[in-house]
Structure formats: C-alpha cells, structure tokens
Amino acid sequence: MIVYGFLLLLFIVTFFPFWHIFILSLNDASDPTYGQFMLWPTEFSLDSYKTVLKDSEILNSIGVTVARTVIGVPLTLACISMLAYSLSKRELVGWRSINLFFVFTMYFSGGLIPTYMVVRSLNLIDSFWVFIFPGIMSIFWMILVRTYMEGLPKEMEEAAQLEGANDIQIFLKVIIPVCIPVLATITLFSAIVHWNAWYDSYIYTYNPNLKTLSAVLVKILNQFQTNDMLSAAQQLANEQRKMPVSSESIRMTVTMVATLPIILMYPLLQKYLLKGMLIGAVKG
C-alpha cells in the first residue's frame, strides 16, 4: 500500500506541471485568474494555438523538426542494426578490439571545439544534414541491439543458411523481424532525441530557416526572461491584437506544440519499450 501511495504521489508531482502548462495554453489570456492554480480552463480558448500556428517562424521550425525526425530515425535504425548484427558475431576477426574501440567512444570524446572543427571541415555548417550525420550512431543503443541479437537462438540462422540464404537475407528476413521490440525502443529514443534537439541547431546553423522547433522555443523563453527587450512571444502576441493572447499564453502554447507529438508516441510503442529494454540489457 505504501508503494502504491508513493507511486501515486510521484505521478502527481511529475504530471501536474505538464497539466498546468496544458491548461494555461487552453485558457483565455484575458481571464483575470490566468496563471493561478487551476485544474481545468475557466475560459476555454484556442486563440493562442491559432496565433502560434499562424507564425511563419514556428511553422517553418515544425517542418524542419518533422523532416529531421522522419529522415534521422530510419537512418539511425539502419546504421545501428547493421553494426549490431556484425558485432554480435563473435567469430568476427578482431571482434574484441572492435568492440573496445566503440566502447571507448562512450567515455571519451574530443569535446565541443574539435567536434565543431570536424563538422565545419565536412561542410555541414548551415546545412540540414548537420542534424543527421553527426548523431547518426549511438554506441549505447547499438549495445542494446547487439545484446538482444546475441540472445537469439542460433538455430534460426542455421536453418536459413541451410535454405541457401546469405548474410544479407538472414539479417533482413530473419533477424530484423524478431528484433522488433528492441528496435521499437530505439525508434522511440531516437525520435525523442531528434524532436527535442536544439543545441546542434543553436551552434551549427545560422540560417533562420534551419532552426528546429525546440531551438525556437528556447529563443522565445530566453528572450521572454530578458527585461531590456521585448520578448519574441510578446511580439507574436502583438501581431494578433484582436486575439486575447499574451506572452505567457504564447510560451505555454509553444511548449505544448513542442511536447505533445512526442508524448503521443509512447502509447504506440509502450508494449515494446519495456520488453526491448529488459531483454537488451540482460547481457553485457
């Protein structure tokens, strides 16, 4: 009973801030009680959403974020699964050394400046592909997939080999279908990373048309907290003077627009998430 009570309390503590933001985004900003404690909108209004979804900068950032997620996630899955399949074969020449090489990169990196120099030397600065290639591989995710593949019965591959299948056919038609749980887990992780990413947009791009939704959100939040300049949220609100919106309601709405789509992915992949994490982490 104590455990359930603790979990309920933890749920309330973590869920209420998100619910509060959601309610504020749906409440009329001209309401005198706006910003106070409320469990539901006292004056329901979608004007803030209408204002946000009419702004060209936000719409463009949504397109950039969707594009990097749609392109980046499949490429990440392809690279991780192929590398994991190769490293799951202990008969591979230099197997231990290759694994140690990849694990080494999890603990040591060149740092921000060398990374920036590499990205610049590859002519990826101010390019959409700077969102895709530098982060296309995650060694931790690869280890999860590799461990999952190592736990699969060897008889499946042997039976496919007896039928005349080569390594590519075995990988695509035998291994991938039974790795759906762990791959679905990696899909969710990768989608979250791409959707919420803002730092790479902040340091690698200067073109406003390449800014991601999270980067625009950070810009709005930062400018809103600066006293000596008009916030981007307030500017956006002023452009729609006929609508009862405010800088605060715009901030809440942009936060929801940036958060809701990725949250909606959890119910779709939930049945695979726990299974993929547990089975993928059984071995080291």
TrEMBL record:
It comes from the Bacteria. InterPro entries: MetI-like, MetI-like_sf. Gene3D superfamilies: MetI-like (1.10.3720.10). One of its GO terms (cellular component) is plasma membrane. Coiled coil: none annotated. It is a multi-pass membrane protein. The keyword Membrane applies. Residues 58-269 form the ABC transmembrane type-1 domain. GO terms for biological process: transmembrane transport. It is found in: Cell membrane. It comes from Paenibacillus paeoniae. Keywords: Cell membrane, Membrane, Transmembrane, Transmembrane helix, Transport. The chain crosses the membrane at residues 7-26, 58-85, 97-116, 128-149, 170-195, 250-269. This is Carbohydrate ABC transporter permease.
